[in-house]
Design goal:
50% helix; 6 helices; alpha+beta; single chain
Length: 222
Amino acid sequence: MSDGFAEMIVRANRFFTQLRDNNTKEFYEAHKAMYNSEIKKPAELLADLFAEDLAKATGKAHKSKVFRIHRDVRFSKDKTPYNAHLHLMWSQPSQSTTPAFFFGASPDYLMLGMGMMHLEKDSLTAFRAMVDKRGDDLQEAMQSAQDTVGASLSDWGPDPLKRVPKPYDPDHPHADLLKRKAFALRADLSSEWHDTGLLKSLNTMLPGLMPTWQILNKTFPG
């Protein structure tokens, strides 16, 4: 059965389509009240509700975040001021690196993702050691995610290295994973999501991502 979040997505897609064509302060200010009440506010409710569901599924508390519509243009050649999409994230309230869940909605996609976007220094070293020791298990979990919910390896985050980092063999069986500086899976929601309901559809996808989450969580328990 559909839920109120389906209407939020319809309104968001209509708004973001218009914003793409008129990405200006004048257009945004004219529609700001609508965005806040009909898109941002229900998105915050969705974020809070799914955080509770993630805590039940993973056994760990997750804090939610609705990303700002304002773009950070300080270091970007693209100076358009606003994001033409809705992005949410759920992460563990930990000072260390842990796997997070992501939701994205735009006129072009509606997806759920899970992974780690910023692998640096110690976390990158730990990820590579995990791939070296448990690469077969990780590949099996990724294949399961693909088979069950159509998940694939995302290209979010920094570009992979061109060569396998030392001290690992250039011919390592999981060379492609060792080259990565971020790791995330993403899966598009099925075409039935509108009838099923957005929140229920997200929960239906969780079991397909959990085997990969469990491997990451064992390496990065928080």
